[in-house]
Amino acid sequence: MTGGNIPGGPLTVPVIIVGGGPVGMMLALNLDALGVASVIVNVEPQPRWHPKGGTHNSRTMEHYRRLGLAGGLRKLGLPPDHPTDVVYVTRFNGYELQRIVMPSEREKMRAVAEAGPTDQIPEPILRVNQMQVEALVFAHVARRPNIVSRYGWRCVAFADEGDGVSAEIEEVATGRRERLRGAYLAGCDGGQGLVRRSLGIHYIGDRPERQAYLGGPMVSTYMRSPGLFARLKRKRAWQYWFINRELRANMVCVDGTVEFLFSTRLNSDDEAPDNGLISRAFRSSVGEEVPFDIIGHMTWTAGQAFVADSFGRGRVMLAGDSVHLFTPTGGFGVNTGVDDAVNLAWKLAALVQGWGGPRLLGTYEAERRPIAFRNTAAAKQLARNVGAVPVGEAIEQDSAAGEANRQVARDYLSTFGEEFGSLGVQLGARYDGSSIVVGDGAPPSDSLIAYVPTSLPGGRAPHLWLDNRSSLYDHFGAGFTLLRFAGEGLDTRALAAAALRRGVPLKVLEIAHEPGRDLYGCGLALIRPDQYVAWRGNRLPDDCDALISRVTGW
To answer: Phi, psi (5° rounding) for residue 340?
Structure first.
């Protein structure tokens, strides 16, 4: 199905996306990059202007780079010289227990400019609030002619009809209804969304554990306090954790000057945020009276780790919170969802365009579900660590006992840091054992912290800076890329011909890069549209048709 509408008939678009948050928009944009149209159906007319996750990891930023958005996103959020340190304090004006020092945006980009030829971080982690990112991406989506927007509409029903899908949608403001027809439908509508529940798919995993903090019902309050930083007697930070006998709370800088997101516990799941209680908690966290205004609240649940028992049925797939629910520790949630979208997009595009085989769509769940278990478990463990910080009776006293209590907390907190880097989680996800990956060796051990670049099929293609200081990733094609290291006399025409016969988009990219050849350890590497290595070798296989057939799901 390629699209087209019959007058008076349903709107016909190859892919129907229910849910237009960051995951739904990334799915639409990645389909667009591959030449496939979609329609986004989203209840709210535009992204909600309330702070949420503030971490967009290196892998997510690589995806934004491919879409031409990374540069614009880096202009948002904190001022370029604002530290992105994370600080643990008794109170804002109290004792500093631990500081995890991290570079400002300017320092990160300076490191990129000076990086060596095999450096693996072309796009450093970005600390900018999700609401600001969503607004920019939303505006970009609106400019893409391949994406039909139905923001302010809800999906009320859908059906998998065997040869396609249909959906009925309703405009929230007017009740007006419209029918959609597509080849596939993707549910990106969150943990309580219609699509997952209609399919009868359930979550499995760990319910929140009650603990001192990050366990159970929480509230995040968006506030403005112009004079807060004027009270600070130490170096600024991006995130503050308040730890004392009275309360535990967290505060994130939204704009680096006057806007903050303050998070604390609620007593029960059904408790509504109360301005008075939250104001007292904020003043207590600061440690003195300070003027502030409350803009709004958002409730959420900490300490959960759920993964859906299926990532889709038939022609209906799920992504993002529809298939995994995180505690936000580590910022893994939205980033895992973006990776879902990128994996799913090229497979849907392949099927719509006719070069994807009947086994291709099943590899989406086979590849992404293990990563969902991996990443939710990592976030859960980090939340347990935060909740277990030892807080002695005298921790705020100016005394020997107080200093002893603070030292115990410092010793415990000195092991922290993984939550705010976690490069292994960011870049190290692997699809070993996938039926569309031609494995040829034992993968490196999985690590929360460390990422080991390798061309072993099933992992992210190792990054290289080329001689002109452009990124290798900037030269990959929208479809498959056959990376060929120059000077080895390798004839790649047979693979290009096999791809052409099957209609598979393939770019042959030749580079002269001795450090890169050493890192890859092979003369040829076949890179998927999601920048994962599908196959490698020092010469083409005898049957190139069989290779193309395998990596595209035939």
So the answer is: -55, -50
At residue 8, the pLDDT reads 62
pLDDT for res 329 = 65
Copy the structure tokens of residue 20.
């237009």
Burial (CB count within 10 angstroms: exposed 0-12, middle 13-18, buried 19+), residue 320: buried
Residue found under tokens 């497979």: 347
- Statement: the pTM of the whole predicted model exceeds 0.90: yes
pLDDT tens figures, 80-94: 999 999 999 999 999
Residue 141: exposed, middle, or buried by beta-carbon count in 10 A (0-12, 13-18, 19+)?
buried
Q: DSSP string of 452-511?
A: ----STTSBPPP-B-TTS-BGGGGS-SSEEEEEETTS----HHHHHHHHHHT--EEEEEE
- Taking residues 279-293, report their average pLDDT: 95
* Residue from 548, 472, 546 nearest 510 by CA: 472
Round to whole Å and give the CA distance between 343 and 341.
Answer: 5
Give the orientation angle of helix 22-33 with respect to helix 332-353, to 10 degrees.
Answer: 30
Confidence band for 501, pLDDT divided at 50, 70 and 90: very high
Query: 140-192, pLDDT tens digit by residue?
Result: 999 999 999 999 999 999 999 999 999 999 999 999 999 999 999 999 999 99
Structural domain spans, the chain: 11-74+125-205+305-378, 430-551
CA 73 to chain centre: 14
Q: Is 32 helix (H, G, I), strand (E, B) or coil?
A: helix
Phi, psi of 258 (to 5 degrees): -130, -10
3-state secondary structure of 96: strand
Beta carbons of 81 and 233 less than 8 angstroms apart: no
Per CATH, the homologous superfamily of domain 11-74+125-205+305-378 is FAD/NAD(P)-binding domain (3.50.50.60)
* Helix, strand, or coil (residue 65): helix
**Interatomic CA distance for residues 316 and 9, integer angstroms:** 22
What Å distances lie between residue 186 and 169, 175, 476, 478, CA to CA?
14, 23, 26, 21
Q: Look at residue 459 and tell me whether its pLDDT is greater than 70.
A: yes
Residue 399: partners with Cβ closer than 8 Å, 6 or more residues away: none
Overall fold of domain 430-551: Glutaredoxin (3.40.30)
What does the block give as tokens for 467? Answer: 């001689």
Closest CA to 55 of 331, 259, 303, 408: 331
DSSP letters for 303-372: S-EEEES-SEETTEEE-GGGTEEE-STTSHHHHHHHHHHHHHHHHHHHHHHT-S-TTTTHHHHHHHHHHH
What is the token pair recorded at 273? 């945020």
If pLDDT is split at 50, 70 and 90, which confidence band does 326 have? Answer: confident
Question: Rounded to 5 degrees, what are φ and ψ at 166?
Answer: -130, 155
